[in-house]
Specification:
single chain, 204 residues, 50% helix
Length: 204
């Protein structure tokens, strides 16, 4: 099976979900962001239960379902479906910064990387979390993530992370999603898009 065929199947799944959502919006059965996310989560769950789409789309469906069930309205499922549609019918580099990073982090988790968002007191100080350098892991500073993107998903400040284990492998994954690392200190890095940037990291 060719890569184009796989992309086309994912695009078809995303298109069907977006059309279903559009119809529900037109009918007035959903309105708010929370209702839209709930509608998509239920629609995807039913699609999975009835095997509506080929098994090649299962990874994307499971990923979207997990996002919807764990993040609720913060999952922004309509946004992510649009990303999948655009990514499989165009080029990934054209997609918003936030979603390209989110997709890279979730892909790492699917390959059994530890992914954790840390509070400021877990990042430094007496309660700093002790990390195992042998374990593949990426740890994101929550306060950095909260201020890194605007409402359109475009990066406006660096994302501070700690990376352990196979650092070069994670860097390659980021590169494929249009992101790059800049080492700050030891296991600490700044994440930025590949585009030239005037972003200036700020210390805590």
């Amino acid at each position: 099976m060719t890569e184009i065929t796989l992309a086309a199947r994912t695009a078809h799944m995303a298109w069907c979900a977006l059309i279903a959502l559009h119809t529900a919006l037109q009918d007035g059965t959903v309105a708010s962001e929370a209702q839209q996310n709930l509608f998509i989560t239920r629609w995807l769950a039913e699609a999975k239960r009835t095997r509506r789409f080929p098994r090649e789309t299962a990874r994307d469906i499971d990923w979207l379902l997990k996002q919807g069930r764990t993040l609720g309205v913060r999952a922004k499922l309509p946004f992510k479906l649009n990303f999948l549609w655009n990514a499989t019918t165009g080029t990934l580099d054209e997609q918003p910064d936030l979603y390209r990073l989110s997709h890279a982090l979730d892909t790492a988790r699917e390959y059994h990387w530890v992914y954790q968002v840390l509070a400021d007191d877990q990042w430094q100080g007496r309660r700093r979390l002790t990390l195992n350098p042998e374990v593949n892991g990426v740890y994101v500073l929550k306060s950095s993530l909260d201020t890194a993107f605007n409402e359109a998903g475009k990066q406006c400040a660096p994302v501070r992370v700690r990376i352990t284990g196979n650092v070069s492998g994670f860097q390659a994954l980021l590169e494929s999603s249009g992101w790059r690392t800049e080492q700050e200190d030891a296991d600490q890095y700044f994440l930025n898009t590949r585009e030239p940037s005037s972003l200036t990291p700020s210390g805590l």
